[in-house]
Amino acid sequence: MRTGVLMCVALLAGGVAQADTWGILEPVAREVAASDAQTYRELLQSELSRQLGGGAQVTLITGACSDAGCAHQAGQRAGVDYVVTLTLGTLGTKLVATAAVVDVDDGATLRSERMAIDRVEDLEAVATRLAIAFTTSKHVNETAELGAITKTEERPPTRRHGDSGVSFHIKGVVPFGSALADHQFGMGFDLGFWYEALAFSIEPRVGFRFDTSRDERRTYYAVPIDLSAQYILGLGDFAPFFGGGMGARWTYIATVQTVTDSGGFVQTVHEAEPEDHAWGFGAFARAGVLLFRTYSVRMMLGFEYDVTFVDLHGLSFPQTFQVDLGIVF
User: Fold this and answer.
1) Is the pTM of this model over 0.85?
2) Residue 185 CA, distance from chain mean position
3) Which of 47, 163, 266, 274 has the least C-beta neighbours within 10 A?
4) What is each CA distance from 215 to 89, 218, 273, in whole angstroms?
């Protein structure tokens, strides 16, 4: 009964159920140093323990197997629920690391994964990726994240660490507040430099905002020069971020105002089209998601609230809400 339930969970989730006891057999090493193979096993033990959490036990089992039947018997002798077989060998100039999970109840192979690497140092990344694959529904190729990418995958278009590059943004701008109350939807463009580390990014940028309305009597322009900082919440290809920044802005607003002139017994009413512009301090808050983060070329979708602390036409603080689509080269 227990076996049937666990197998159903494994099949539905695409991964292996998190049993209480796991065992890892000694690796079958082919033309590979025994010490490297043993380190591979110990790394996998550590990563499996971390992925499974405190309730699971991951032990090392004496003996080496490369097939499910032998692993089944070894797991029964050790009294574990699942047993992992490991193979490490060479293929030309590459190392090929394989691992499989066998259900000790019925001897069925639940998961089998393989990775080819260029150097023995990448066995640490292999162990991390295999542990994630064995405890989730992901294939091992889908477990890439910054800090767990092999040397082969590090070559373009994927990478291992944070990266930097030129950023370009196109924005939809929605003005609001008293200073921009009569102005319509606008657009904006930014050019910057995106410096990215594992958990944060910094972006200096210069931009241009403008009103897309054809009514020349109600127009605004803005040139922001900003510096922002973002906290990035993930290492994979879908990474939310939030942050904000500040800087200097030049803002120009032309608007139509009703003016009443009094001269003796005669009053005249007409429309004036005053223009006003000024430099001022501004700030903004932003949140969004960084896409394709493990790649050299990344995209981002974000939302920003922006305010400039100037008085124009006697009205305070032009404000905008912006929808941002960006790309980092």
Assistant:
1) no
2) 30
3) 266
4) 72, 6, 12
